[in-house]
Design goal:
This protein has 13 helices and five strands. The chain has helices spanning 4-12, 14-20, 30-40, 44-71, 92-98, 102-105, 120-133, 143-151, 155-167, 183-196, 213-216, 223-232, 244-257, and strands spanning 109-113, 138-142, 170-176, 201-206, 234-238. Helix 9 (155-167) crosses helix 10 and helix 10 (183-196) packs parallel to helix 12 (223-232). The chain starts with a helix and ends with a helix.
Length: 260
Amino acid sequence: MSSPTSAMSLTNDLPAQLKQIGLKSIPANLDDFLARAAKARWSPRMLLEQLAQQETQERSRRSLERRLRMSGIKKFKFMADFDWSWPKKIERQVIEQALTLDFLREARNFVLVGPNGLGKTMIAQNLCHLAVLAGYSVLFRTAAAIVEDLRHEMFEGRRRKLRGYGKVGLLCIDEVAYLSFDDKAADILYEVINRRYESKSVIVTTNRSFKEWNQVFPHASCIATMLDRLLHHAEVTVIEGESYRVRESQREAAARRRPK
């Protein structure tokens, strides 16, 4: 028979025991949880139902936070702040349709083409954020970051990382053609896109027309094949106009010049 002292010890260790069996939310809020149970006169079954519900919600929250952190989306503005009237040309219906994630469910690609400062990255970040909320695993990376990640890997390491790029639910390759790359970089991006061909969606943002990609990847023999894979099942939308950032800079400068 256990002594009163040992029984008290077990009671005092209850939060630790709950943590030990994998509970996350209840141990930190045990007193409040038990007080609510007593006040509402929960039956044993109801108490277990409430415990399961609270733990499920907590695990969903932690999973969302983890997937957002691993995605690499970072800080961004939501589409509610997007100024549709600023670009000289923008296919709003196409972008809003993409925000339903239909392209993702159909394993199609989505490509945004246009000059710097018109919101291509912002749109891509919103698409990736929505995908995370919908339960998909997401990777948001610049083209330069992907090339750097894979360039110096030996065969086995590169194959393992390529497998990761191929399996993730949605991959965004931001800023393709912003920098000049060599033919090795083109081969790396081709491998990444080819791994996902007809099975997983890719979002690409680029500031150069496709006919200019040969200038960005000089001497690369895979450009035509890479574009063939990327664009075969893809929605391509072009944005034209002047940079938002230039406009904001001009407004800020004008505001500083106003007499106070």
